[in-house]
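Example S7 (structure tokens).
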């Protein structure tokens, strides 16, 4: 058996194990009974051990090494995949097996501990678990760091290859210089919003009905995807024929479910519109978190918050929430949807202030991973940083340090890609608008035309192209954050 044949045979087995692990994780986060946590964790431990044993098999690892040495003999896609898998081998080679398996088990429990702490507004409940997560992340850095990639840079690079603190510091400094004072100006004298929108109670079943309507508006394939409810909206998928999204419903915020649904559909469409030839490979999915986020933020904000979109769909929302919204005009609704204010919750933040929320997390993560601060310091530092950047201060753990799920997953280095993704999205939207009449497509209720463009220029490539490659294919120029700055100033300077 050749190295390639062995690799393909093992890959098939690993993909099957990973699919089962993914299904168990999806179930845990959406519908699984609470008391099943401990039992499921035992099964996950077994599965994680089996996957590790397969990945760490000497013959399999040697097959990858051999293929890496013989790249020129492979087709282009397989070259890309082998490079990716060779990079991933460092986890197997350098991270002790017992620590790897223990961490997988920890991850299966951590999210539930976080959810309980958030529900009870008690960070102390999460401290012991989060300390374990952070300890592992610091160890991971020590195991994997190289001469050119050390500390927090290593974690950043995992989520957006090529972006380190140097690049992110420049990017965020640009946003600080261009937007901080602008945000203060825009939010100084906010326009009053219609009381029916800000003080009303919106039935969750009616919100669900509108979310289901949105699935069809955006041509989200119900035969390959579905929509469920979770504590924190997310997208999860392992193949173009099985990509799932969640949203959440807040009775005091009609915008929350609308835009979390559209946001996650942006992610979901990316996965569903991958070329199916990548389904059984390790090239399925988005090429990076930044590019992935560019799609969710572009669909959510540049399309979903546009006047053209609501010119077509506001009547449907009014019909569902009649008579509650009967006296709320389209103009009132647009003011509400695009209102800018300095608020505490990232996922509810408007697009103008959103980057400031990410900068809070970026600054804190740098200090936490380096050891400059400890887990116990997080609530105070979180609140202080919010006050410094946004001029507002959280009064509870739930609206402060516990609001995001990401740290419970050990996803340190992930948050910066959100801001980067918004900036990517602005540049991509500019390019798409030059190629097709985007506003007309929206007014014609033809989001499919937009989906077709994003599929052709971004989605179909899956992970076969780098983020820089995708930006060149989609926009014909390298990434430049000025598109993002110009978009925000153009929208909110009116």
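Recovered sequence:
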């Amino acid at each position: 058996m050749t190295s390639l044949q062995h690799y393909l045979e093992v890959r098939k087995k690993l993909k099957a194990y990973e699919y089962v692990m993914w299904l168990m994780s999806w179930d845990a986060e959406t519908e699984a009974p609470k008391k099943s946590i401990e039992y499921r964790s035992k099964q996950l431990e077994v599965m994680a051990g089996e996957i590790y044993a397969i990945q760490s098999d000497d013959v399999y690892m040697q097959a990858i090494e051999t293929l890496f040495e013989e790249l020129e003999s492979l087709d282009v896609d397989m070259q890309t995949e082998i490079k990716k898998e060779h990079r991933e081998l460092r986890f197997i080679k350098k991270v002790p097996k017992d620590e790897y398996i223990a961490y997988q088990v920890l991850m299966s429990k951590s999210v539930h501990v976080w959810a309980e702490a958030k529900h009870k507004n008690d960070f102390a409940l999460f401290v012991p678990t989060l300390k374990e997560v952070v300890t592992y992340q610091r160890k991971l850095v020590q195991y994997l760091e190289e001469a050119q990639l050390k500390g927090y840079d290593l974690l950043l690079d995992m989520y957006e290859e090529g972006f380190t603190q140097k690049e992110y510091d420049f990017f965020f400094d640009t946003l600080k210089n261009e937007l901080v004072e602008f945000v203060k100006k825009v939010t100084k004298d906010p326009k009053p919003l219609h009381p029916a929108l800000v003080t009303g109670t919106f039935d969750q079943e009616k919100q669900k009905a509108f979310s289901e309507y949105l699935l069809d508006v955006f041509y989200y394939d119900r035969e390959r995807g579905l929509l469920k409810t979770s504590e924190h909206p997310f997208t999860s998928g392992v193949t173009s024929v099985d990509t799932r999204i969640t949203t959440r419903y807040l009775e005091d915020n009609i915008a929350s479910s609308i835009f979390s649904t559209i946001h996650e559909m942006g992610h979901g469409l990316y996965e569903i519109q991958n070329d199916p030839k990548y389904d059984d490979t390790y090239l399925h999915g988005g090429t990076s978190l930044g590019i992935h986020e560019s799609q969710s933020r572009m669909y959510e904000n540049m399309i979903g918050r546009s006047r053209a979109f609501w010119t077509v769909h506001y009547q449907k929302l009014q019909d569902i929430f009649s008579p509650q919204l009967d006296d709320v005009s389209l103009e009132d609704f647009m003011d509400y949807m695009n209102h800018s204010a300095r608020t505490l919750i990232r996922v509810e933040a408007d697009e103008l202030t959103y980057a400031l929320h990410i900068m809070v997390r970026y600054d804190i993560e740098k200090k936490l991973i380096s050891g400059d601060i400890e887990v116990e310091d997080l609530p105070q530092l979180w609140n202080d940083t919010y006050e410094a950047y946004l001029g507002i201060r959280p009064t509870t753990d739930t609206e402060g340090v516990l609001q995001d799920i990401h740290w419970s997953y050990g996803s340190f280095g992930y948050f910066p890609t959100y801001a980067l993704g918004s900036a990517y999205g602005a540049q991509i939207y500019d390019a798409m608008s030059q190629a097709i009449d985007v506003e007309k497509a929206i007014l014609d209720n033809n989001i499919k035309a937009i989906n077709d463009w994003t599929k052709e220029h971004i989605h179909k490539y899956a992970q076969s192209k780098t983020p820089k490659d995708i930006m060149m294919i989609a926009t014909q120029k390298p990434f430049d954050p000025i598109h993002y700055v110009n978009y925000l100033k153009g929208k909110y300077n009116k």
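Notes on this example. Residues 3-132 form one domain.
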